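Duplicate of earlier report; Luciferase-like domain-containing protein input re-posted below.
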Amino acid sequence: MKTAIALWGDRHIPASAIAEQARALESGGVDGMLIADQFGNFIPPQLWKPEIAPAAAALADPDSHSDPFTLAGYLLAAAPTLDVAVSTDSVRRGPGELVQAALTLTNMTEGEVTLQVGGGEAKQCAPFGYKRSQGMSRMEDLFRIFGAMLDSGGEPIDFEGKRWHYTGASVGGGVPRRPKIMGLGGGPILIDHTTSYADGLATTCPPVWAGPDEFARAREQILETVAAKGRDPGEFEFAVWFPCLIGRDTNQLEEKFTNPLIKWLAAVFGRIEPTDWDKIGLESPFPDGWRYYSDLLPRNTPDSLIEGVLGTATDAHVTSGWVCGTPAEVAATIAEYVAAGADWVCPMDYLPMVLDPVEAVAAFERSIQTAGLIKQYSSGPLTAPREPLTPAR
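Output:
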């Protein structure tokens, strides 16, 4: 089992400061870093204000993301033993470019390189003219081309796919180590492509599978599908993101449950399929049929929608959509997913956005502590509290 921490490559922050965070991960025993390929965040401008998010006093907007591959190379120069996972999508970058980028990163790190590939989000695609509707067909082509190029020994390949057509295509035979590619999501078509061609599945819990038992059942079914397709289920891996609120104590956490930004984010991705709120007796904060990946355009979000969501979202949405607790409590919860078969875990703490700057620095240290405790609890009998502050159900 491996751990990772997500690094926010905001361009308002000097890259050297992010490199210091990468060094802290390396020295703190975290296995790797996750860098997201994003054009923009999940946050409407109406909610990015210092009185809601103290980070807004220093960061003029939450959308100034760095190019993930450029940033990853810079960070690996500072922390060359870290694994690196880049989360991207199948829509905005071509297969040849992604193969080349992944191989370049494998030449920069002593660790593993993994691409986690989703089908595209409206906020990344629509404003820039990309067709999100092509996400699944492009994903299938990408997975097939990725494997074909890595298996070719540098010899040219021909490929006729649904979206991509290659004739005599090669990026050369320099493969320092083989990078991995995973599907990122939980939908049926994505899982079909992933089980057919990819090295594993990356997903998020509790937003997709709300507890370790639900995750274990889904994992078992997916591995059965892998085997039925003639592939080795022992080689198929599961990576899990955990949206978290990691606090120093109960008081610090509970006072943030009503923060408008925390409530908004809990509503947006606390359940990827909003109808899943019904399973735990909660009303979806969004209108029927609304899904963040197909409908969220933060800069075009009307005040009326924000007001309606914040009026519906409750503490229960927050504590069910996030893993909440101290480092020990959050680690104990995540360790249960490890016991259920997760191979790679990434606690993603959103609390720093609503903390003052001094507290935000301490929060990063808590993430590193959490990763260490996950390893400790996963390697022997669980000695920490088995329940988080307010358990995800």
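Residues 2-38+61-251+321-379 form a domain with the TIM Barrel fold (CATH 3.20.20.30).

Merging into the original ticket.
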